[in-house]
């Protein structure tokens, strides 16, 4: 006959580990802007983070062809285009005027001109084929 007293003396923690309480983590926001929502336009002064007051220039600039294929645009190269008109060519063939308000290590975000008004957008730097600032 087995001895059941031995099993009753083992601590219950050995069989069932208590779970740590679940913690809520807020959505990611870009560094330096704790009030930026994860999806949608950044908050702040309209002249500072919002779209430009008028349309972009009415011409389409010539695309520069350096003849060198790179995997992604460097964030340091596009950072001077913050809060300026920039024409962007994407790898998928799309091209548009933009007004950038955020440049991160792997992505950019800002306002894209759709021909009628400004629409908030974001894209990875690896999606950008080339760009020109004005």
Describe it.
This protein has 134 residues and is mostly beta strands. The protein has a domain at 70-134: Roll (SH3 type barrels). The protein contains three helices and five strands, in the order H-H-H-E-E-E-E-E. A five-stranded antiparallel β-sheet has the order 4-3-2-1-5, with no helix packed on it. A hairpin with a 4-residue loop joins strand 3 (107-113) and strand 4. The longest helix is centred in the N-terminal third of the chain and has 5 residues, at 5-9.
Secondary structure elements and pairings:
Elements: H1 5-9, H2 46-49, H3 75-78, E1 85-90, E2 95-103, E3 107-113, E4 118-124, E5 128-133
Antiparallel strand pairs: 1-2, 1-5, 2-3, 3-4
Short description:
The protein has 134 residues and is mostly beta strands. It contains 3 helices and 5 strands, in the order αααβββββ.
Measured between the Cα atoms of the first and last residue, the distance is 89 Å
Computed Rg:
26 Å
Overall mean pLDDT = 77
Helix content: under 10%
Q: What's the shape?
A: globular
The CATH architecture of the domain at 70-134: Roll
Helices and strands, in order, run as HHHEEEEE
Going by helix content, strand content and strand pairing, the class is mainly beta
CATH C-level class of the domain at 70-134 is Mainly Beta
Strand residue content: 25-35%
Would you tell me which CATH topology of the domain at 70-134 applies? SH3 type barrels
Taking pLDDT < 50 over at least 5 consecutive residues as the criterion, the unreliable ranges are 33-47
* Largest sheet, strands/sense/barrel: 5 strands, antiparallel
How many DSSP E strands? 5
Total count of helical runs of at least 4 residues? 3
**Major β-sheet strand ordering:** 4-3-2-1-5
